[in-house]
Amino acid sequence: xxxxxxxxxxxxxxxxxxxxxxxxxxxxxxxxxxxxxxxxxxxxxxxxxxxxxxxxxxxxxxxxxxxxxxxxxxxxxxxxxxxxxxxxxxxxxxxxxxxxxxxxxxxxxxxxxxxxxxxxxxxxxxxxxxxxxxxxxxxxxxxxxxxxxxxxxxxxxxxxxxxxxxxxxxxxxxxxxxxxxxxxxxxxxxxxxxxxxxxxxxxxxxxxxxxxxxxxxxxxxxxxxxxxxxxxxxxxxxxxxxxxxxxxxxxxxxxxxxxxxxxxxxxxxxxxxxxxxxxxxxxxxxxxxxxxxxxxxxxxxxxxxxxxxxxxxxxxxxxxxxxxxxxxxxxxxxxxxxxxxxxxxxxxxxxxxxxxxxxxxxxxxxxxxxxxxxxxxxxxxxxxxxxxxxxxxxxxxxxxxxxxxxxxxxxxxxxxxxxxxxxxxxxxxxxxxxxxxxxxxxxxxxxxxxxxxxxxxxxxxxxxxxxxxxxxxxxxxxxxxxxxxxxxxxxxxxxxxxxxxxxxxxxxxxxxxxxxxxxxxxxxxxxxxxxxxxxxxxxxxxxxxxxxxxxxxxxxxxxxxxxxxxxxxxxxxxxxxxxxxxxxxxxxxxxxxxxxxxxxxxxxxxxxxxxxxxxxxxxxxxxxxxxxxxxxxxxxxxxxxxxxxxxxxxxxxxxxxxxxxxxxxxxxxxxxxxxxxxxxxxxxxxxxxxxxxxxxxxxxxxxxxxxxxxxxxxxxxxxxxxxxxxxxxxxxxxxxxxxxxxxxxxxxxxxxxxxxxxxxxxxxxxxxxxxxxxxxxxxxxxxxxxxxxxxxxxxxxxxxxxxxxxxxxxxxxxxxxxxxxxxxxxxxxxxxxxxxxxxxxxxxxxxxxxxxxxxxxxxxxxxxxxxxxxxxxxxxxxxxxxxxxxxxxxx
Length: 891
Prior knowledge:
29 strands, single chain, 891 residues, Rossmann fold, 6-stranded mixed sheet, 4 domains, disordered C terminus, 8-stranded mixed sheet, alpha/beta, rod-shaped
C-alpha cells in the first residue's frame, strides 16, 4: 500500500472529513462513535485499500445519496433542510453493511416551507433580466431528518458529487465542487458539523435560522455565513429585557445542543452583570428519556420563581408544553428566544394556555411579494420528487393516494387534486415569513456574488472558472437592497445587523393568539437606547395586566442595606436597617454610608440632617436659672456693698477691715459675673476668658479672705504685752499680700494661655444626634494648676481661720470665715468627680454651680451676719460691744 494512501486514511479517521474526490460510506460517517470502533474502521479501510492498491481509480464508495428535490442549471446550489423531524434508530451488529438512516413518519412542513422559499428565490433570479442574465441556477435539496450525521453525509455528497463509480484517471480525482454554495441548515449544531466539514473546501454555507454565537468564530467556521443575527446579541437583549421588567429571580430552560447551551451561557453571563440570578438552569433534548423530562417538570414545580427564560427549539418547546399541560402547570411568565416565540404552530398546540402572555424576541417582520402564492403552489414538488410529493400530499390532506405504498389505515382516499384553499395547518401558515425571507436573502446574496464574479451586464461571462473561495470572498463583501427595501450585508464574522422585535402573546376571545409587537431592540444603537418598549399594553401570564413579580427577596428600601443570605445567590438577601449615624438613600443599597461628623441620620435613615448644636444657652431652663442665680448673687453683693458703704463709719464695719471688705465684695461680684461667661455658644475669646476670669477672681476673693484671717490673728497678737506685730502687717502689707497672691494666679493663667489655651470644641462622643459645643481645656495641667492654686489658698485660709475661731473677741470674724472656707472646700471637692462624670453641657453647669455655691457661701457666711447686726441689731453695733470680753461659745 502506498504511503500517501495510508496517510490519507489516517487523516480521514482522525479529522472526520475527506478531501474532494473521495466519499466515505454512510456507515463509516454516521456510525463512527468510539475509539475501539474507530480502530476497527481503520483496519477495515486498510484491508480494502490494500486489496485495491493497484487500482488507479477514484470514486464514491457506498450507496448513492440522491436529493429529494433537484433541478439542473448552469450553476448549482445545494440545500440542506429537515423534511422530517425524527429518524428511526437501528442497533447495528457490524456483521453486515449498516442500513441507511430511515426517517420516521413525522413530516415537518417547516422544512418544506424553507425549501419552497429557496426555490422561489431561484425561480425569481432565473426569470430576471437584471441579475445573472443568461445564467440559470439549479439546485439539489436534501432531507437530513434533523440528523447531524446525515447532515455531514449530505454535505459531502454536495461537495463531491453523487456518481456511483467513475473510472477516472488519478489526475482527475481532484475536481470542482458540485455546488457553489449551500443553503441551510435550520439548527446550530448541524450547521457546526457541516461547516467544519466543508470549511477546508471554502464552500459558502448560508444559514437562515442557526443563531449560535459560536458560529461567528471564523477560525473554526471560515465559510459559514447567516442571514439571522447571532445569539450573542439576542442573549444580551433577553437579559436586558428581564432586567427592564424588574425580574431578578428567574429559571432557565434550554435545548441541550449548541444553540441552547451557547445562547444560555451568554444570557447567564450578562444576567450576572445585571444583578439577575438563576434559581435553576436545566437542559434537555427531545430524544431524552421521559424520566429526564419529568425531573425538569419537578424542578419547575418546586421552584419559587414565576419567570422562565428559554432557549428552546420549536420541537423542544412543543414537547415541554405538552408535558406541562399534563401536570396543569400554568401561571408562569415565559421569556422566549426567536426559536419559538413567534411560531403560530406552537401557539396552536398550546391548548391549555401554558404560554399565554409570553414575551420574547423575534426577527423583524418581513414581506416578500409573491412568495406566499408560490409556496402554496406545490406543482414544483410534484415534478421534482414523486415519492416525496406522495408523502407530503397524504400528510397535508390526511388521506392516501391510490399509487401509494403506505398502509391505508382509516384514511380516506386522495384524488391528487385536493384544494389547499381550506387547509389550515403549519404548511399554509406564513407566520415564519421573516425566516423565509432569510432564505430568500441568502440565495440572492449568492446570486449577487456570482453576478459580480461573472462580470454580468447584459450577459454573463460563462468562461470564468468558478472557485468556491472566490465566491465566498465576494459574498462577504456584497451589499444590496432587496425589492422590499431590506439592506443585506455581512460583517466581518459573516453576521447581519442585529435587530429584533419584542413580541407579546396576547390571547383573543376566539382562542387565537395575537403576536403583538410591543418593542424593538437594535444592537447598533448606544447601550442605553438599544431596548425600546413601545407605548402598548402588555398581557402577562394568566391574562394579567400587571407586570409579574419575580424576585428572591423584596427590594431594600432607602434606609436599609442588603445582607446576603448564607448559601444562597446574591439575589437572596435580608434588609437590615442602617445603624445610627449611617444612611442609604438608594434602593437595594449594599452598604450604609456614615454621615459627616456635623450631620446625623434621620429617623428613616435615608438622609443626613444637620446635627443640633447643643450648649448651655440662656434660653433653656438650666441656663436661665443659673443666669438668674448669678445676677441674684451680684445684686445681693451690691446691696451688701451699699450697706457697708452706708454704715462704713460704724464700729462693726471699721472693726472688720473695711478696705479688705470692699475689695472682697468687689471680687465676689466678679465671681458671680464670671459665671455668665460659661453660658452661651463658646467662642475662642469666651473660652479663654471664662477659665482665666474664674481663676483670677476666685484667687482675688480667697486672697481677701486670707488677708482678713491674717488680720484677725495679727490683731490678737497685737493685744499681747510687748507685741509689735501689727506694724509688720498694716494696711499696706495687707494690700501687697492680696496683690501678690493674685499676681501668682495671673502668671499661671498667662503661661496657660501662651502654651495651650482653651479653645472651642465640637464633641461628637457623648450624644450622637447632637453636637456638643464646649470649651476644651487646652492644657489640662494649666487648668488643674489654676484650680489647685485656688484650693491651696482656700485650704490655707481654712486652717488659719480654724485656728482663730476661739479668739476672745465679742464678734470674732474668724468663725464665719471658717464656715465659708468649709463650704468652699466642700463645694470644690465634690465638684471634681461631678465635673469629670457630667456629660456635655452639664459639665459646664456643674462648674457654674460650684462657682455660685462657693460665692454664695462666702457672701452669706462673712457678710450676712454683719448686715443682720447693722440693720436689725443696731444696739450691738457699738465699739464697746465689739471690744467685749465675753467668753466665746464653743465651736
